[in-house]
Q: What sequence folds into this?
């Protein structure tokens, strides 16, 4: 049961990160950025969301133990 919850949570975080990255890339293109710049912004946003999720998970684990 715990494994299923962990896998579903990881999938949710990845989906949210992909949506945020896609939105950042689209907004960059709408702002007039070139495709490489928009892709860089999207990748940076994706990595930031994954990093933020990792930090929150680590902090919660430390607080709950």
A:
């Amino acid at each position: 049961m715990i494994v299923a919850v962990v896998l579903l949570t990881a999938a949710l975080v990845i989906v949210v990160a992909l949506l945020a990255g896609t939105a950042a890339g689209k907004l960059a293109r709408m702002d007039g950025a070139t495709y490489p710049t928009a892709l860089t912004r999207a990748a940076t946003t994706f990595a930031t969301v994954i990093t933020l999720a990792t930090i929150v998970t680590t902090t919660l684990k430390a607080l709950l133990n």
In short: The chain has a mean pLDDT of 95.
